[in-house]
Amino acid sequence: MASVHPATQAVLRHFRYDHLPPHLQEISRPFHDLAHQLASTLTGPEVTRALGDLFDAKNWAVCARLAQDDQEVSG
After folding, report:
1. CA 50 → CA 1, 19, 28, 71, distances in Å?
2. What are the start-end ranges of the H helices in the chain?
3. Which residues of the chain have pLDDT under 50?
4. pTM
5. Residue 8 burial by CB count (10 A; 0-12/13-18/19+): exposed, middle or buried?
6. SS3 (DSSP) at 43
7. CA gap 24, 63 in Å, rounded
């Protein structure tokens, strides 16, 4: 990944998912994979912006899973 811009590399670290419990890893992993695919195939500031939006989407998807878990426990 030597050709990836340092700003892009900095964003990619936020797509790690190994620290999450398994049921959240399955939600987060596709975002990680897409982020790394985009970073390895595209260049420019737009990529960093796209990764930022993808990061937001990943976080909202994880939040949705957590909300679903809460409903299952209380419901």
Report:
1. 18, 24, 16, 31
2. 6-12, 22-41, 45-74
3. 1
4. 0.89
5. buried
6. coil
7. 9
